[in-house]
Design brief:
binds pyridoxal-5'-phosphate; alpha/beta; four-stranded mixed β-sheet; 35% helix; 17% strand; 434 residues; 2 domains; Aspartate Aminotransferase, domain 2; single chain; 16 strands; Aspartate Aminotransferase, domain 1
Length: 434
């Protein structure tokens, strides 16, 4: 029996919306006080089309992921072709070409010392895997004292229990989950802003903490150069360089979470390149599949993978590990990146966002405006009320989803200068009315 695609209507009725509000939990929502929600019929290029026909220029890349835009012919073809041979097989005892090809590309693209690839289902899981790798590494060496991680405030590493524990303890979920989360060591967020002149005092708190706690630390975990939704802060690569030195000096592993920054977003393929730093363990996700499917990876050095493997096995293995559809579309997404157009695209977005957003710094409600690579941030003085602000952006014909005091965008790399101007105008119109 063939399926008539027209039968599968994309129209979302009022009944559907009522059902959604009552029965479906969306990201960070209450089912008894549901926020406004917008039904999408389709997405193509940099535009989302709502079921009422309105088009929105997408400033969010569906949370950093759709770097090449929606409905991309090469990415579509990758998935379609892969379905002809297999949609999925388990990864225990079996392997396949899409996983091998993807792993080859990742090993070639990432810093040289990262040689072993673990396929995870989502960013949060790749962070869990990274933390487990760090713990198993030390246990393999006979060290059971080390259990904790050192990190900075304003971080974001995901929503699962292990990852939550290293997110910002104030704007994260620490108070809600007190007594359940492991207590790690936190120091102030990096204070040397991106582009500022480095001063030694910026390292004081971090270096005291690592000196004091190193015997208990399996590792340091950081988002390199850009802290994502924990604050959308851009900090000096010099900080990262110094952290790497201290990790080496004190025998602590360095875990870098490049889930948001990876694949060109900050202007270099990976943010750690800006500091010339190679982590022991690195997490990648979000843009890995060009935003098509959920997939993430944790890469590590031979030192980590061999130490664990010489003493046993690495204890993790998700059901949908290395899903062939996800691996094949990721492989093609990396091919598109390897063609190199992203460099000019990201530079162009950086220039355009600076021009479009910088004027907002004059407003009394705006604390700061900053742009790095294809990331633009308008930091407000007060938290914005998402329930009122979200529909205002939609009225402007743009998709922007603020968080706390942060109105931020990270557009698909393919966005044209005209669409960036439209996005900028829409943001200015809304922020001026706040
Ligand atoms: C989004 C994000 C995660 C979590 O990834 P999920 O795929 O949402 O689980 C972890 N770390 C960083 C830096 C992120 O931006």
């Amino acid at each position: 029996m063939s399926i008539d695609l027209n039968e599968q209507s994309t129209i979302v009725s009022q009944d559907d919306l009522a059902f959604d509000a009552k029965h479906i939990w969306h990201s960070y929502t209450s089912v008894t006080h549901p926020p406004p929600i917008f039904p999408v019929a389709s997405a193509s290029g940099v535009r989302l089309t709502l079921t009422d026909g309105r088009e929105l220029v997408d400033g969010m890349s569906s949370w950093w992921s759709t770097i090449h835009g929606y409905n991309h012919p090469e990415l579509n073809a990758a998935i379609e072709k892969q379905t002809q041979s297999m949609a999925h097989v388990m990864f225990g005892g079996l392997t396949h070409k899409p996983a091998i090809e993807l792993a080859k590309k990742l090993v070639a693209m990432t810093p040289e010392a990262l040689t072993t690839v673990f396929f995870a289902d989502s960013g949060s899981v790749s962070v869990e895997v990274a933390i487990k790798m760090a713990i198993q590494y030390w246990r393999s060496l006979g060290n059971t004292r080390k259990k904790r991680l050192l990190t900075v405030r304003n971080g974001y590493h995901g929503d699962t229990l292990g990852a939550m524990a290293v997110c910002d303890p104030v704007n994260g979920m620490h108070s809600l989950f007190r007594g359940v989360l492991l207590e790690h060591v936190f120091v102030e967020a990096p204070q040397c802003r991106y582009g500022d002149v480095w001063e030694e005092r910026y390292l004081d708190e971090f270096s005291s903490a690592i000196r004091e706690h190193h015997e208990d630390l399996v590792g340091v975990i950081l988002e390199p150069v850009v802290q994502g939704v924990g604050g959308m802060r851009f900090y000096s690569p010099e900080y990262l360089r110094r952290v790497e030195e201290l990790c080496k000096a004190f025998g602590v592993l360095l875990l870098l979470d490049e889930i948001a920054t990876g694949f060109g977003r900050t202007g270099t393929l990976f943010a750690c390149e800006q500091a010339g730093v190679t982590p022991d363990i690195m997490c990648l996700g979000k843009a890995l599949t060009g935003g098509y499917m959920t997939l993430a990876v944790t890469l590590c050095t031979d030192e980590v993978s061999h130490t664990i493997s010489d003493n046993g096995v690495f204890m993790h293995g998700p059901t949908f590990m290395a899903n062939p559809l996800a691996c094949s579309v990721a492989g093609v997404s990396l091919d598109i990146l390897n063609r190199g157009e992203w460099r000019q695209q990201v530079k162009g977005i950086e220039a355009a966002l600076s021009e479009e957003l910088q004027p907002l710094v004059e407003l009394s409600c705006v604390a700061d405006v900053r742009v790095l690579g294809a990331i633009g941030v308008v930091e407000m003085k007060e938290p914005v009320d998402m329930k009122t602000v979200q529909p205002m952006f939609v009225e402007e014909g743009i998709w922007v989803r603020p968080f706390g005091r942060l109105v931020y965008v990270m557009p698909p790399y393919i966005m044209s200068r005209d669409d960036l101007a439209f996005l900028g105008q829409g943001i200015r119109n809304v922020v001026e009315r706040l």
